[in-house]
Amino acid sequence: MFDKKKRIVFLAVLFTATFAVMPMSYAMHIMEGYLSPKYSVAWGIIALPFILWGMASIQKMLNKNPKNITLLAMSGAFIFVISSLKIPSVTGSCSHMTGTGLGAILFGPAPVAVLGLIVLLFQAILLAHGGITTLGANTFSMAIAGPFLSFIVYKICKKCSVPQKISVFLAAFLGDIFTYIITSIQLAVAYPSQNGGVMASAMKFLGVFAPTQLPLAVIEGILTVIIIIALQTYAAPEMNMIQFTKEEA
Prior knowledge:
The chain has nine helices and two strands; from the N terminus they run H-H-H-E-E-H-H-H-H-H-H. It is globular and about 55 Å long. The chain has a two-stranded antiparallel sheet with strand order 1-2. The chain is mainly alpha-helical. Strand 1 and strand 2 (94-95) form a beta hairpin. It has helices at 2-20, 37-64, 69-83, 100-107, 109-126, 135-159, 164-190, 197-234, 236-241, and strands spanning 87-88, 94-95.
């Protein structure tokens, strides 16, 4: 079992290292300097309580069982890898997957807020993906809002006896889409349309992201299902420790 864990961690590190050196490009994360100081500070203040909650949640989880660090680290690596894969959209900007649904399904939304913050910070510094001044806004959309919806969707599906694979797919898919909805609203609030205000501006931003983001969300849903199956196969003891049971055939 130790060899299996080493293989899983090695693959996560390998994929992270591979995609971390890919070419830079403009990205979905709100870029450095794009928000005025008042909005940058406001989103940072809004995100802060969730980050503190996430830190407390992670500390409590690791105090209960330090071995949970393996799955937690893998969830963070998954977020880093697939959110670094950027595809040009129709406007010259880029779209990408978020990867936060996996962590939300396994641990709940609170720890993912911290994982997402760490990923966004590294991407801003190392990949010029996002920015430091826009870190609060990007954290709220990708690491807080999206994971919360993923968690809620998964729990509702589980309560309604929806098959596990479908539940995981829907949670990851809708969490990804919701991230882009929140990002569009953030941009619309900062740059309302002269004709139609915030709502009209939000619809324009959504229209920019939709052609590339919808298929990416489908891919993310499928990838998340595959990762869950792989974890249940090769990391069953770790999955049992967080009480994530394998669906019976």
